[in-house]
Every structure is written in C-alpha cells, then in structure tokens.
Amino acid sequence: MVAAVILIDQATKSWAQEALRSGPVPVVGPLRLELFYNSGFAFSLGAGHPLVVGIASLLIAGGLGVYALRARTLLAQVAASMVVGGALSNLCDRIFRDNHGAVIDFISLPFWPVFNLADTAITVGALLLALAGLRESR
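User: That's the sequence. What structure does it adopt?
Assistant: Structure tokens below.
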C-alpha cells in the first residue's frame, strides 16, 4: 500500500507540473486543477521551514510504519500504510524535486486549501485509523 500511494501520487504530481504550467483547468462544477507549491504541512502550517517539516514528516512516517507492522487488524494496517505512503511521497517532493523544499499541490476546491493525492491518502488514512481505534476499544 505504501508503494502504491507513492507511485500514484508522484505520477500525478509529475503530470500536474507539466500539464498545469499554463494555468488552471476546470474539471466539473467548482473542482479545478491548478498548480501550487506548498512548503508547509497541510493548510500551509510550517510554511517557510522545509527542514523542520521534512524531519517531522520522517519521524511521523517512521512511527506509523512501525505501528502498521504491529497493528492487529487489516484496517489499522491499511490506514497506517496510507498515512505513511502519503507522508513519504510528500517528503520525496521536498527532497528530490527542485521545488525549494515545497510539495506540489494541484486539486483545488473553493473554500479549501489546494491539495494532492498524498494529502488525500493521509486524511483518509487518519480517519480510518480513528475508526480502527474505535473498533479495537469495543
């Protein structure tokens, strides 16, 4: 799951970086694709401090990776793997792309920060982790 998230996210970011260079593309309704670079975490928290953001991402991914290996349920394993894959893919942007430590974001909705598929995997994975925790506590 981790590798799948990274591969799909990196492929879509490479596509977005080329295809959206000339401007936004409307998709359907308020959804549009638009190229942005985010040097922070979600919602641009920590923007301007890519080293701190990168180190924190690596620590979180490492801790959740260990958790995924030890998780007792498939739901918890998949959820943690989604978060790890998203975090590592965004970290790959910061390290291997020439974006000055920024992550490529390109999915744009009104009244919501621009995001990417790694962010989606992190968000869905975190929600599923919460659900897995609730199930385990019963």
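The radius of gyration is 15 Å.
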